[in-house]
Every structure is written in structure tokens, then in C-alpha cells.
Here is the input.
Amino acid sequence: MLIIDEADALFFKRNYVPVFPPKEYERELELWRAYARFFIWLVRNYGVVHEGSVVGFRLREAFRDFDAVFKRFKEFVGVIVRRKDSFLRELLVWVLGDVIKLSGVVNSIYKLFVRFCESCGYDPEDVLNNDKLFKENVHRWGEYFCL
Here is the structure.
């Protein structure tokens, strides 16, 4: 459950990331990026979006395609947390098992991305499609989280 605690701290504590993150924050920033990329993929493939907001998920379809979803989860998040597949499978089942929590997390991540993009003067699609922007603008994350 350590990974969940780290993710909660990263996603929901507004004063978490300093303006110029020291080396010890690199793992947390990479974890944030990994979870964000997975949830963006999940929204694009299994999300129900209405007027720009995620309003639900086709979770039955996601569980039916669990191997494909797990493969993407492992590709994005698994390489960062470096845990056994059994732990990652349980974590993914936990994430997909509560649609209210999942929708809240995805909405929070989406809002974080939009605010990050606005603070850096980028279009959100450019940020989502160009990973280089994360590294080039990491010093702006502190300003973004403190808004």
C-alpha cells in the first residue's frame, strides 16, 4: 500500500512539489507521470467523457480486456514501482474496483494536467503527446502545484 500512499500524497497535496525539486523528488515526479500516463490511456480507451469531463468508465469492458489493461499498467506504472506482477495485478484490480474513486482520481489528474499546461503556456494535447515537455518544465511544477 506504500505506492497508493505515495500517489495520494502526490496527487492531492497542493504544496508537495518545490519549485526546483531536489534529486530525492525525481522518483515521485516520475511516479506522478507514470500514473498520469496510465490514467490518460485508460480514459481514452475505457472512459466516458461528457462536455470535456470524465463521467464514467466502461469497467466491465476493462475487466474483460484485463490482460491488455494490465499490460499497459505494467508498461507505465510497473517499471517505476518495480514490484512483482502479483502486486501490480492486485493494485490494478483495486484501482478499477471502485468507479467513484477512479473517476475522482482521473478528474484530479486531468485538472492537474490542464493547470500545468496553462501555467507553462502549452496546449494540453501537446503536453500529453510530448513527454519532453515534462522534463523541460519540471522547474515550473512548484508554481503549478501552489496555485
The longest strand covers residues 53-57. The chain has one domain: 27-145. Strands lie at 47-50, 53-57.
